[in-house]
Design a protein that fits this description.
By secondary structure, the protein is of the alpha+beta class. The chain is built from 3 helices and 10 strands, in the order ββββββββββααα.
Length: 241
Amino acid sequence: MSTGELLSIEPQELQFPFELRKQISCALNLSNKTDNYVAFKVKTTNPKKYCVRPNTGVVQPRSTCNITVTMQAQKEAPSDMQCKDKFLLQSVVTSPGATTKDITPEMFNKESGHHVEECKLRVVYVAPPRPPSPVREGSEEGSSPRASVSDNGSLNAAELSSVSRAHIERHEPQDSSPDVRSLISKLTEDKNSAIQQNNKLQQELELLRRESKRNQGGIPFMYVFLVGLIGIILGYLLKRT
């Protein structure tokens, strides 16, 4: 903060998070700590590049005023990210009850004998803020809890034990339930039944092939094909179970 006799200015430098093709704004806060009405005027070395609102005004006694400086969208970035632009804020005591309409260029003319206070502000380019990375507030449903890591990189012993216990419980076979045992028994019976039916169909198919050879095509080929297809389907179902 720059503290002059008339106005306190914050911040001392205009920081712009530089981004190409984007307007960027920076705020200035003026504080009048006196009992006088203080008029101010803002100048810049590059008026086409910046828009200052308001660029002139009056700060009443014991009050503040906010100024917004907007840098126009830039098509190119400086190679060294350095900016030579500067601002000059002039302030002068004015008559009580004065408003912005009462401000004239002559008020800031030092040669006319006016006491003009000046403050120079430089422009600084800074890196734009990074968006916050998404952080999960809790473990997702169905996932095991994660142990936290202490500052020295070691796992907390209690949390490590909890993680290990949860991992074991999740992967431990749950076949102690009567329903689970019943389901396993039924699946085993279905599997054995399918095996028997498949073997039977294979035997029947083999007999049909032999009879077909003896009868020289007495059995229709389509019948043999259908029987073979049924055997393949049963074999597929057997593998899935």
